[in-house]
Design brief:
This protein has 244 residues and is an alpha/beta fold. It folds into 2 domains: 103 residues, Rossmann fold (3-Layer(aba) Sandwich); 126 residues, Rossmann fold (3-Layer(aba) Sandwich), CATH 3.40.50. It has a 4-stranded parallel β-sheet, sandwiched between helices. α2 packs across α5. It starts with a helix and ends with a helix. The N terminus is likely disordered. This is BRCT domain-containing protein. InterPro entries: BRCT_dom (IPR001357), BRCT_dom_sf (IPR036420), Ect2 (IPR026817). One of its GO terms (molecular function) is guanyl-nucleotide exchange factor activity.
Length: 244
């Protein structure tokens, strides 16, 4: 594991690595993908499960020889993706990322080890989650951020660009609210970002897009009213709560 990590650290600062793109599964049938790779990169198609397993078994040893294999997969929602992700030394990107880079005529970015990269929609975003939720739910949303090229911070700080609130409560939320440096958005923003992951035109960080998902003051809070004078006032308070 230390060897793989050292390889990853060295890789970003040196150009003498041999990189091979391993196209696997359904991606092998994507003619546009293969054409985009053929123009500039070394690649191979791996169709059978036996070939995939053999290639994976060689990955760690190849890293010590400065030979990096980047696996290209069609979808991040198929069983093959989850099986690959179990390997701690894996480097995974999507076919969509390759096609986007080819369209923009830029180099394909090397993903971080065991952090699959689907697109770069959130490449300039540093996100902090607030409001508390179950660990498995937060992990799901953290994965979305990473798949789209963004970063996640456990604590709120000056570098955080966007806050995703599961509920407007807690110390981190109050800090972000009072500092007024970051957009505070609902979790629906990230869900929509993932839904639009193949949309090469949409800028998910654009103000007009973000405005739709700004968290209202009472986002996901449960309020209880005591001592309301009459039914009319209760209805008024109920309406105010729903609007905010």
């Amino acid at each position: 594991m230390e060897e793989a990590q050292k390889a990853q650290d060295d890789e970003s600062s040196s150009e003498d690595w041999t990189i091979t793109f391993c196209v696997i599964g359904e991606a092998c049938s994507n003619i546009r993908l293969l054409s985009a790779l053929e123009d500039r990169y070394a690649y191979e198609c791996i169709n059978s499960e036996e070939q995939v397993l053999r290639t994976l078994s060689e990955t760690k040893q190849l890293l010590t020889k400065r030979q990096l294999r980047i696996y290209v997969i069609e979808s991040f929602e198929e069983s093959l993706f989850y099986n690959l992700k179990e390997d701690e030394n894996i480097y995974i990107i999507s076919s969509e990322l390759v096609l986007t880079c080819a369209e923009k005529k830029i180099d394909i970015p090397v993903p971080r080890r065991n952090r699959p990269l689907y697109s770069q929609h959130l490449s300039s975003a540093i996100i902090c989650f607030v409001g508390g939720t179950r660990r498995e739910i937060q992990t799901k949303f953290s994965d979305i951020v990473h798949y789209l090229g963004g970063s996640v911070r456990k604590d709120y700080g000056d570098q955080v660009t966007h806050v995703v609130s599961f509920a407007n409560l807690g110390e981190k939320y109050l800090t972000a609210f009072n500092m007024e440096r970051s957009e505070i958005l609902t979790e629906d923003w990230l869900l929509e970002c993932w839904k639009e992951r193949d949309n090469r035109i949409l800028d998910v960080l654009d103000n007009d897009f973000i405005r739709i998902y700004r968290a209202k003051p009472l986002h996901n809070l449960n309020l209880f009213f005591f001592g309301a004078a009459d039914e009319t006032e209760q209805r008024h308070l109920h309406t105010l709560t729903l609007d905010n």
